[in-house]
Amino acid sequence: MEGRKTKHGLAKTIIHYIIIGILVALTITAFVFRKEISNYFAGDLTNNQTFNTILHYMPQLIISIQIIVLAYVVNLVLKLLSKIGFGLTDKTKTIINLINSLLRWVMIIGAILWILNIWGVNTTTLLAGAGILTLVIGLGAQSIIADILAGIFIVFESKYVVGDIVVIDGWRGKIINIGIRTTELQDIGGNIKIVNNSEIKSVINQTKLQSMANCSINVSSAEPLEKVEKLIKDALPEIKNNIPEITGDIIYRGINSVSDVTTELLFSAQCFEEDLYQVQRDLHRQLKLLLDKNNIACFAPPTYVIDEKKDDLVEK
Question: Positive or negative CA dihedral for 87, 89, 90, 93?
Fold first, then answer.
């Protein structure tokens, strides 16, 4: 099933790029023969005046499609460049993503103005008139401006960059994109959270320094503590070799809690934040295997009392 999905996705990608290639080829062809196309549609091609009028606008329509295709291809190239990265640092990648986001907006606005100009709209007057609307729009777009400014400060202050694992508003995830208006995070389950940059008031960056994976395991209180501690301490170097994600020594922290039934032992190991949960799981597994191999009970055996009336054993 997974292989079928992969093949289907690959087929869609191939078809997508084939269509883009065809559109680019047609765009280049139309650009090369633009004079011939204009001359062809300049005359009356039919006896219907209404249809002829529509055909006279075909050169403008073709040029508009060319601009849209060009803008789409440039946008696609920018996305590919931001994904490739060419071995750049995370901060540089983040700056590139922000610049790409800004360029896309500039490109969209430029393409719209260019198309309007082709269809006879006086864009100079339009831009001059836009100055009158600036104050009105600005009052309604304060949050957008705040998002943009916050995004710029986020990038250049390097509080976090693409690839960092952070906690924002209690939501833990990996930064996958810092745009001109929003920041995108992806959690371990693949869910994506989008936050406006201006709404990010506090961030816990868990990637700046290595994290500490904590692990606790219970052993039966009936087991001799010194024997268990020596057994585990002697085995810690081997356990570390079995978990390559651990970057430092496994530390035995001591007894975390004691009850009538079990004694809880606490361990910790240094690792990268992205490996934290896996290291905890692997550490639990290795310790459990060690205890099982040496017949160390994790829980106290059940206690029985004699019910004299029934002359039977009853579990306590």
Answer: negative
Could you give the C-alpha distances from 89 to 96, 235, 273, in angstroms and in order? 11, 39, 18
| CA-based torsion, 135, 138, 139, 140: positive or negative | positive
Q: Which CATH class is domain 148-205?
A: mainly beta
Contact by Cβ (8 Å): 239, 289: no
Tell me if residue 217 falls in helix, strand or coil: strand
Q: At what angle do helices 276-293 and 225-242 cross, to 10 degrees?
A: 130
Determine the Cα–Cα distance for residues 28 and 61; give it in Å rounded to an integer. 15
Each domain of the chain, given as residue ranges in start order, spans 2-92+104-117, 148-205, 211-293
CATH of domain 211-293: 3.30.70.100
**How many other CB atoms are there within 10 angstroms of residue 228's CB atom?**
19
Tell if the pTM clears 0.85, that is, is over it: no
Q: Per residue in 88-132, pLDDT tens?
A: 666 666 666 667 777 777 777 778 777 777 777 776 666 555 554
